[in-house]
Write a structure and sequence with these properties.
Elements (H helix, E strand, L loop, with lengths): L3 E4 L5 H12 L3 E6 L3 H11 L3 E3 L5 H15 L4 E4 L14 H29 L2 E6 L2 H5 L5 H21 L4 E8 L5 H4 L3 H8 L11 H12 L10 E4 L8
Parallel strand pairs: 1-2, 1-4, 2-3, 4-5, 5-6, 6-7
The structure holds NADPH dihydro-nicotinamide-adenine-dinucleotide phosphate (NDP).
NADPH dihydro-nicotinamide-adenine-dinucleotide phosphate binds next to helix 1, strand 2 and helix 7.
Length: 242
């Protein structure tokens, strides 16, 4: 029986590439999204992957969605916590709304979704959880105290869940992408990209969503059971952690 994978924010950008890569590997994939129906329908029509619309920051909505996916595809074996947003401002101009939106969407979401699949994974003695953090959660970034806090929070969350899941063959790992060529990065002004980002990427280019997807495929595999609590940096050499 094919394994079932849920990719939050799986209809666009990095998530889209993850959904497609897992589907090509034979997983039965559910891709979730927040509100961009047009992109989701286009994605679903092109790939045949079913899509589920809900807010990952809303626990009750996540609960309904997890129940629906389980009903449609079967119990969830692989969870990729990928959905994320930015609301940038330096701290002295950061609003409580910006702070709250980012923590809720990028960090609370990981609790919501993981909490809702963990009992079933424990019961079946198998699970693969992959969280998508960011280089900016590793090293900080000007204007991103909210985003860096949420993404760094995912690193701690991953380590704790890895310890708790180990005896039940549930792994939990985190990927920290550098700058990837998606709509999120396209929103960065061109002059900032050319003067402040590209010169600091040793490989000399942005990453691709497919390069992050292959990290997920690796960590999600049945035979990746010895890798847990790890952070996989995929950033073109921009930040080399010890
Ligand atoms: P995109 O903006 O291209 O796509 C985001 C996806 O998440 C969309 O499917 C979107 O749904 C969904 N989403 C956003 N908010 C919610 C929500 N509240 N509930 C459910 N789904 C939601 O993002 P990227 O592909 O660029 O980023 C994906 C992940 O990778 C994020 O966690 C991001 O922080 C991280 N990352 C990205 C980097 C980059 O360079 N792009 C670098 C490092 C990390 P909808 O289409 O409906 O809006």
């Amino acid at each position: 029986m094919a394994r079932v994978a849920v990719v939050t924010g799986g209809t666009r950008g990095i998530g889209e590439a993850i959904s497609i890569a897992l589907s090509r590997k034979g997983y039965r994939v559910a891709a979730t999204y927040a509100g961009n129906d047009e992109a989701a329908q286009r994605f679903s029509a092109a790939t045949g992957i079913p899509v589920y619309k809900f807010d990952v920051g809303d626990y009750d909505a996540c609960e309904k969605a997890v129940a629906q996916v389980t009903h449609d595809l079967g119990p969830i074996d692989v969870l990729v916590n990928n959905a994320g947003i930015t609301r940038d401002a330096p701290l002295h101009r950061m609003t409580r709304a910006y702070w709250g939106d980012v923590i809720r969407t990028n960090l609370d979401s990981a609790f919501n979704m993981t909490r809702l699949v963990i009992d079933s994974m424990r019961g079946r003695n198998f699970g693969r959880i992959v969280n998508i953090s960011s280089i900016n959660g590793r090293k900080g970034q000007f204007g991103q105290s909210n985003y860096a806090a949420a993404k760094a929070g995912l690193l701690g969350f991953t380590k704790a869940v890895a310890l708790e899941g180990a005896a039940k063959n549930i792994t939990c790992n985190v990927i920290a992408p550098g700058y990837i060529n998606t709509e999120m990065v396209a929103a960065v002004p061109k002059d900032i990209l050319e003067s402040k980002i590209l010169p600091f990427i040793p490989v000399g280019r942005l990453g691709t969503a497919e390069e992050i997807a292959r990290c997920v495929v690796f960590l999600a595999a049945d035979d990746a059971g010895f890798i847990t609590g790890a952070c996989l940096d995929a950033n073109g050499g921009q930040y080399i952690a010890s």
